[in-house]
Amino acid sequence: MNWFVFSIIALLCWSGSDFFSKIGCRDNRDKYSQFKMVMAVGVVMGLHAAYEIFVGGVEISWQVIWTYLPVSLLYIGSMTLGYVGLRYIELSISSPICNASGALVAIIAIISGTADPMELPQYLAIGLAAAGVIGLGFVEANEDEQLRAARQEASNFKYAKSWLALALPIAYCLLDAAGTFADDLVLETLNEDSANVAYELTFLAAGVVCFIYTCIIKKQKLVPKAEGPKYIGAIFETIGQLAYIYALAGGESALAAPIISSYCVASVLWSRIFLKEKLSWKHYACIVTTILGIIIMGVYDM
């Protein structure tokens, strides 16, 4: 499979992770939900890391872990902020804002000269994907209050707009873009399987720290019914992460990053279908724009 196929797999899995993470973290009364989510992802990634090491034969060392640690911390930090944001803002708003990072990566790669030369339609495709993702965020952020109230009434969850609600996904966007750009550079010196295992082990360590803080120090209980969606989301997250590593390792990060970042389009659709968050014609216009960009990028890779 080439980078485009892996990018689509990451898109679908990460949209599923978005959806189930939202279900697991949307109760704003639980101020520890983000730590519980990190615990869930840490457990699943730790299990997958063990499989890769003892069954798959992936080589791992402290040197690989330390080399990849800055990238791991950027990703884990951004995801934790994203989980916090899910308590205060709708998925259909937070996901597009968070995933504008892919467009940011593409722009950085082109400006810095790390992207391979491309033809004009490919630049157009990047522009379309980026415009669709960013436009979707602006549409949501500037939505009419009456339409917003109607959507929240249908979903039975009400959120108050605040600077914090928007600042959290923006912070995610910046950290994730930095992580993606650094990831592309580090993977030039590391095997992608070893790098992914290093990331998973670091996430496991973060999960252990969150468990100690949440369950031992703060004495919070873990209710299976409430934690279930978190672990489903963690499974999707782990599969998506593996596909993402292979997509970037294909050497086309300037094209792969916008495709993967557009998983928010699928997240918005899942929100509409299952969480009853309504969409306007502006939403659909942004979705079509992003999909068109993805198709152009896929055609040029064939």
Low-confidence parts: none
Helix percentage: over 70%
* Envelope shape: globular
Rg? 19 Å
**N→C terminal distance:** 12 Å
Number of helical stretches of at least 4 residues: 13
Percentage beta strand: under 5%
List how many beta strands DSSP finds: 0
Mean pLDDT: 86
Largest sheet: none
Account of the protein in words:
This protein has 302 residues and is mainly α. The chain is globular. The protein is built from 13 helices and no strands. Helices cover 79% and strands 0% of the residues. The protein has one domain. The mean pLDDT is 86. The protein has helices spanning 3-25, 33-54, 62-85, 91-98, 101-112, 120-141, 145-155, 163-186, 192-217, 224-249, 253-261, 263-274, 281-301. It starts with a helix and ends with a helix. Helix 6 runs parallel beside helix 11. The longest helix has 26 residues, at 192-217.
